[in-house]
Amino acid sequence: MRVDFHTHIIPEDIPDFAEKYGGRWPVLEKTCSCGANIMVSGKNFRVVTDQVWSPEKRIEDMDKEGVDIQVLSPIPVTFSYWADPAQAEEFSKIQNDFIAETVKEYPERFIGLGTVPMQDADTAVREMKRCIFELGLKGIEIGTNVNGNNLDDPSFAEFFEMAEKWEVPLFVHPWETLGRERFPRHNFMYTVGMPSETALAAASLINGAVMEKHPNLKVCFAHGGGSFPYILPRLDQGWNVWPHIRKIEKPPSFYAKKFYFDSLNYDPTNLQYLIDRFGYEKIVMGSDYPFLLREIPPGKVIDDTPQLTEEQRKAILGENALRFLNINVKEELLK
Q1: Starting at the edge strand that comes first in sequence, how are the strands of the sheet with 35-40 ordered?
Q2: Cα(92)–Cα(75) distance, integer angstroms
Q3: How far apart, in whole angstroms, are the C-alpha atoms of residue 69 and residue 59?
Q4: What is the pLDDT of residues 239-266, one digit of tens each?
Q5: Of 264, 300, 303, 328, whose CB count within 10 A is highest?
């Protein structure tokens, strides 16, 4: 079974919140029956096709590329953490309802993750509760920062406390990257900024003692964790040489073993490094469907890693993702 943990979706008929409320809400402007532009503040943020809103088109691609299940999550530009919390909650509900409806229509092909307004903890917890206990979504996707605040900011304490209590898996995806004013050329925001941003988010959850306070919190990072796996020894060295600023009892590498990572790093050498450092049980297959940087076919880097045993390959291609999302693997395989 192949489970693509990292895919993005948006409702085709998402309302124009920019017209309703003003501000930089993403707007889907159709260019034809099978294409659109995602517009932000009057500028074209991204060109997309019907792959990004049509479940039928997605299933067609899944069948062609050998994917059994996609895990659906919102496009990060729709997080809208900058907005009024009540307006952002309204926007989140539209997306979460759409994802839940898509899963309900095709329950054997899709699993859903929701989004919540992280700029206000009470609102975020309320919508997370609705996502999990009313809509039946299996986790929450969050950004790597919220309006420039790293994930160890005290304002997020209640959210992480309740995510652990309710056993809600979290998928951390880069957005609003640090240093983005230095990335206007070469699309470096995607190739350099996002991996660096993800590393900062992972390091913040560890060094800020979030993972120490919440040892059962389930967190998965996009894009193979970005540059985090490769700077982890440097984080350990910092912990060793600066004891006066420590907030955690053990070195960062101890807490990093709790993390999960998707496999989207394109290279078997890098994938093997992830496996050697964190264990094959902590890697889930993810392609970033349907965007340009996605892996085609999904799971190619896993197929191209010769050292994997059949047990490891099966786990990374699908079983690990199901376990991370608290889904019974045997029941899913018997469907």
Answers
A1: 27-32, 35-40, 43-49
A2: 11
A3: 9
A4: 999 999 999 999 999 999 999 999 999 9
A5: 264
Give the span between the Cα atoms of 319 and 114, in whole angstroms. 21
Following CA atoms 142, 143, 146, 151 in sequence, which dihedral angle do they give, to the nearest 10 degrees?
80
CA distance 212 to 209: 5
Reported as a single tens digit per residue, the pLDDT across 105-120 is 999 999 999 999 999 9
User: Which sign, positive or negative, has the C-alpha torsion 320, 324, 328, 333?
Assistant: negative
**Annotation: CATH topology of 3-12+47-333:** TIM Barrel (3.20.20)
Identify the three-state secondary structure at position 145. strand
Q: Yes or no: say if 326 and 167 are a contact pair by the CB < 8 Å rule.
A: yes
Q: Where are the domains of the chain?
A: 3-12+47-333
pLDDT at 33: 86
**Integer Cα distance of 13 and 101 in angstroms:** 14
At 335, is the pLDDT very low, low, confident or very high (cuts 50, 70, 90)? low
Distance CA(288)–CA(317), nearest Å, equals 14
Strand (E) positions, 210-316? 219-221, 260-262, 283-284
Q: What's the mean pLDDT in 276-302?
A: 97
Distance in Å from the first CA to the final CA of the chain: 11
